[in-house]
Amino acid sequence: MSLNRAINPSKLFVRAKGAYLYDVDGKEYIDYHAGFAPYLFGHGDPEVDEAVIEAIRSGASLIGAGTMPWEAEISELLVESVPGIEQLQLTSTGSEAVGYALRLARAHTGRDVVVVMQGGYNGCFDYVSYNLMDPASFVEPHKPGEEYPLSVTTAGVPKVIDEVVRAIEYNDLEAAERALAKGDVAAIILEPILQNIGIVKPLPGYLEGLRALCDKYGTVLIFDEVKTGFRHALGGYQSLCGVTPDLCTFGKAVANGYPMGVIGGKREIMKLCSDPSPEKRVAVAGTYNGHPVNVAAAKACLTRLKTRETEVYGELERLGARLETGLKQVFETRNYATSIVRQGSAFAVYFMDHAPVNWRDIALNHDAQRDIAFRRALIEEGVFQFPVITKQGSISLAHTDADIDRTIELAEKVVSTLT
Questions:
Q1: 252 Cβ contact list (under 8 Å, min separation 6)
Q2: Reduced to 3 DSSP states, what percent helix, strand and coil does the chain have, rounded to the nearest 5?
């Protein structure tokens, strides 16, 4: 198992359906964790699961030789839906997609350096295992426009990788330009909304500025849309912000809980996967890439989003707005500052007096102890959000007005006990 799933208070969940989790004692919880956010339609969605069952009954299997028809079908859907995808490769996870994106960027540019964001998460591989959520003592001395000292997030990363990684602050264009101006950066990678730490939105002009800088310095711009993709729009967040990256990665909501990732982008970069020259060819491989079960789930998701786009995202926005309004009313009379930030169906409660602009802002101003107390108390009342500070809440189409209203009611009960 992944140890990042460990929680306090400890719970043993045994099943899930729709908007609910059930523990070993049979207690029901309204679920806003959503397995780290892939469940756009809710757990065990009938349409998605039926598509999977039909794929199994049809005789589709893991062939491992040639291209399968279902791979072509999902590829066409993805190219039609996402502005930044001209060609693509399927993977089994978002982490794999990020790994291949970085490899492609290096091959395309002939450079080695990767720039990552303080507080961002781009998967588990060595080149992005830096500066995840460093403590206030680490980030406080930082000045705008500067790079951060590297802070590795896991044991086992070779020290030599430090030479090809730089970490900067999100929403800091000056720092990005200083890093890119050195001329050795293959790629800058970021979540277009920094959703690893809740909902931290780009300041006006920030993403456009990154696009211009990458064009100026010949750097590949990678949007990690593993969390933002398909949760906020059929075309990913890139379709909402109007900034098209060179490469983009997807996962989570693409298959509503089934394991699938996508790496896609400009044809001139993606074509390196099949370059006739062995010296230029970028290897993308994986036994389970394009597995018919996962592709069937993704096809069901994307087809539903494409045919009912206005209905789906309209309902998610309505539910999100209902919860945001209710939570604001719960907190507005309290004697401590609270900011609720939302993007469609994803939300975060910050115990600070403004919406954060980056991780340093959160580390220095967010009341982490109150955040944890709030989350743990809600869990005991039957509302499950992951009990780690700033982790986003995710609403699904399976949630009802009654679920939202019950959540607000329990939040009111809980905050009356917070000191």
A1: 36, 37, 38, 94, 226, 227, 229, 230, 231
A2: 40, 15, 45
Question: How many CA atoms are closer than 13 Å to the CA of 40, on its beta-carbon side?
Answer: 32
Compute the distance between CA of residue 324 and CA of residue 311 in angstroms, rounded to an integer: 20
With contact defined as beta carbons under 8 Å apart, do 105 and 187 qualify? yes
Question: What span, in angstroms and rounded, lies between the C-alpha atoms of 191 and 4?
Answer: 19
Structure confidence at residue 6 (pLDDT)? 81
> Which residues have a Cβ under 8 Å from the Cβ of 3 and sit 6 or more positions away?
none
**Is residue 351 helix, strand or coil?**
coil
The catalytic site residues sit at 121, 224, 252
Reference 32, options 418, 375, 389; nearest CA is 375
Task: Give CA–CA dist 58/61, Å, rounded.
Answer: 9
CA-wise closest residue to 164 among 89, 111, 90? 111
Largest CA distance in the chain: 66
Contact yes or no for 410/385 (Cβ under 8 A) = no
- Only one residue has tokens 């309902």, namely 315
Give the contacts of 22 (CB within 8 A, at least 6 positions apart): 13, 14, 15, 16, 28, 29
Cis peptide before 144 (omega within 30 of 0): no
- Of 339, 320, 310, 313, the closest CA to residue 403 belongs to 320
pTM: 0.97
Reported as type and span, the H/E element at residue 106 is helix 94-109
Task: List the beta strands (DSSP E) in 251-388.
Answer: 261-265, 339-343, 346-350, 383-384
What tens digit of pLDDT does each residue of 194-246 get? 999 999 999 999 999 999 999 999 999 999 999 999 999 999 999 999 999 99
